[in-house]
Write a structure and sequence with these properties.
There is one protein chain. The protein is of the alpha+beta class. 39% of the residues lie in helices and 21% in strands. Among the domains are: 34 residues; 75 residues, no CATH class. The chain is built from ten helices and nine strands. Strands 1, 2, 3, 4, 5 and 6 form a six-stranded mixed β-sheet that branches. A three-stranded antiparallel β-sheet has the order 7-8-9. It is elongated and about 105 Å long. Bound molecules: iron/sulfur cluster. The site of iron/sulfur cluster has 14 residues, from helix 3.
Length: 367
């Protein structure tokens, strides 16, 4: 199941507005918040990018290939985007998904995007006033009932909440009963299915409302460590980083590990240079010379003043003058450029130096 995200707009002052702009909610947004509010804040309040791991990329490509295959389109080339060693395994997963999906009933939707308003009415997927939205991998019809299925490429056990939430939304929007929901587990070649009862839909609605209410009222976004920290992109920025074991926080216990960490630093440094060059090239090309990161943070060009001694200035003559007028001539050996500049401003010229960096204060360029 893939869900599309939309960056909330923020004004930084009106908290109510700020937090209600998490709408439309999506499964990934809600689950992210439930797992760890701090990570949610890094991602959706600070808009920090996440590093997609190989498993995430594979899942995305496999979903795309399954959807194409079910629509009768060419799909094998899609898998060529994967690393060579992963392609055969991915192909088996696509074929498994096809085999199960085609036997579930009459397919009426493949990767169906939906969005609903607070009252359950259907709205555009891109509607910023939408309450909840998502993408249903497979919508199947059997007699008058609908069934909702989700392809899972990973090994972790999926939560029932996701498919029940979609069942709740579809039933509310289409006023048609959803009788069954489930997962097609492509890693274990298995199916996980659940009958949908009105009682479970009520539990789903209550759980959804509670999550939304807690999220909209949250002002702390506290870190909630757990197994999910091992794949958190923000672990090194986490306030609890020192307590968390993660593959992204290295430990150095011997010389071999020290060498490994040193090599990583070298690679990151090179990467950082490329990132900086790209960003600097961009801000140099835009009229404002800066780019807004969030309410308080900008990246761009800043100018600082640099003073230089003019050519042909007689430094000795300057020191002689200082010597003659000084109460303690021994002190003139300690005179700094700054003092010389104050005493002999005509001997210096001031120019502006261009710097790049992050800055606050309304993001104005000092030019
Ligand atoms: S490292 Fe763990 S506790 Fe910290 S933000 Fe990431 S998921 Fe949350």
């Amino acid at each position: 199941m893939k869900t599309e995200e939309k960056r909330p707009s923020e004004d930084g002052t009106n908290l109510k507005n700020k937090y209600t702009t998490f709408r439309p909610y999506s499964m990934s947004r809600l689950l992210e918040y439930e797992r760890c509010p701090q990570r949610f804040a890094f991602k959706y309040l600070q808009h920090l990018p996440e590093i997609q791991d190989n498993a995430g990329f594979q899942g995305q490509v496999i979903h795309e290939a399954i959807a194409k295959a079910l629509k009768g389109e060419m799909w094998e080339d899609t898998l060529a985007e994967l690393e060579f060693d992963d392609i055969l395994d991915a192909k088996i997963k696509v074929l498994t998904a096809l085999r199960y999906s085609k036997n579930l009933g009459n397919i009426v939707g493949i990767e169906t995007k939906f969005a609903i308003l607070d009252d359950g009415a259907i709205t555009d997927f891109g509607d910023p006033d939408g309450f909840l939205r998502g993408i249903i991998d497979l919508l199947v019809e059997s007699n008058d009932d609908l069934m909702i299925w989700d392809w899972k490429t990973g090994h972790s056990k999926p939560t029932k909440f996701q498919v029940f939430l979609y069942a709740w939304a579809v039933q509310k929007a289409l006023k048609r009963p959803v009788s069954k929901v489930g997962y097609i587990l492509l890693s274990s070649n298995d199916i996980l299915e659940f009958d949908v009862s009105s009682e479970e839909l009520e539990i789903t609605e209550r759980k959804l409302n509670k999550l939304v209410r807690t999220l909209e009222e949250d002002r702390e976004f506290a870190a909630r460590p757990g197994a999910h920290c091992s794949y958190c992109s923000y672990v090194s920025m986490c306030p609890l980083a020192s307590l968390i074991e993660s593959k992204d926080i290295p430990t150095v216990r011997n010389e071999r590990e020290a060498v490994e960490v040193a090599k990583c630093i070298k690679v990151f440094e090179e990467k950082l240079k490329h990132y900086e060059r790209a960003l600097q090239g961009y801000v140099e090309g835009v009229e404002t010379g800066k780019v807004k990161i969030d309410d308080n943070l900008w990246y761009g060009i800043k100018y600082s003043e640099v003073s230089k001694l003019n050519k042909n200035v007689d430094l000795n003559a300057m020191y002689r003058t200082l010597w003659e007028h000084s109460e303690d001539p021994t002190q003139i050996f300690k005179v700094e450029n700054k003092v010389l500049q104050e005493k002999f401003p005509e001997s210096f010229s001031v120019s502006k130096r261009k710097n790049f960096g992050f800055f606050t204060e309304g993001g104005d360029k000092n030019d």
